[in-house]
Amino acid sequence: MSTTYVTQPQLPPLEEFIPYLEAIWRNKWLTNAGPFHQQLETALARYLGVGHVSLVANGTVALIIALQALGLRGDVITTPFSFVATAHALRWNGLNPVFADIDPATCNLDPDAVEAAITPRTAAILPVHCFGHPCDTARLQDIADRHGIPVVYDAAHAFGVRQSGTSVLRHGALSTLSFHATKVFNTFEGGAIVCPDEQTGERLSSLRNFGFTDETMVSAIGMNGKMSEVQAAFGLLQLDHLSSAIAARARASKRYHEALDGVEGLTLFDTPADVEPNHSYFPVLIGASFPVGREALLARLATRGIFARRYFHPLISDMPAYRRFVGGQSSTPAARRIADQVLCLPLYPGLQQDSQDAVIDTILSALADRDAA
Q1: What domains can be seen in the chain, in order of their start residue?
Q2: Backbone angles phi, psi at 119, to 5 degrees
Q3: How confident is the model at residue 179 (pLDDT cuts 50, 70, 90)?
């Protein structure tokens, strides 16, 4: 029996990577913003349509450095429906997460819940473009402006996503990206911070390199958060294949929609007309009227070697490390419902049609079993 995972890394032909490695071997510049590193920052800024990109070691480091660069103190309103790194980055900066509820239509922070959560201690808002669905950036920015606080976006899922013709990464004071192996764009491990100007970019570059401002002088408490030349070179090669990879994701996403849209008890997420998605995930909600519950469907899929994932269950606010922070069961009912129903189906460029058919058939077989009973 073949195995189908929820995602799989996209790798270019190995022979195309060899010349990059040979160049690294020749110049012996392995880290500290070498030529491939510099080329990738420029290429990504151009591709994404943003002012400046600072490459870092991974997406978590990107969040930690972005928050550190703003010098925040106090509470930060964020979502409980995310990967735990979103909250970890706050705690590594000594900030307290305040978990607000989400909009079930997008799985992103609900601006009304954000507004209600603001107190004199609120230092910032940290939304997540969950599954690559754009947040309500206009309303969040309005709230932030009225209260004199910044918005920092965790855009780990939103590489290349555009709304009304503009990159979603242009919103907020800073946006952060993950280039983890399973992301739409990957550099094995890696990440980046997107900012609007070169001056801010220089501060971020200093913080990723221990806080050095020149060869000997340290002006801030930074870290070793640099991306290597091998990762950067791989990223340059990945860019050459990115359009075809996203097109393959789009085709797989379309097949799911055609097969599953309108199925009783199954909720799919629609893409607004003004959004150019990256098809990073395919989440569905398993409602009460579906013949089997979410856990039973997950088990059915597993028996056929299909490993879907409950992104994101449990909520961050339910994890032992975060139960003492504001938010949780009483204040985030929409997030709790989504966490109890969500299932992300396999989606990646190399997903074979027969493997996707097996996913679809397993889901639809639950309906057939009910009708036959």
Answers
A1: 7-238 (3.40.640.10), 242-372 (3.90.1150.10)
A2: -135, 175
A3: very high
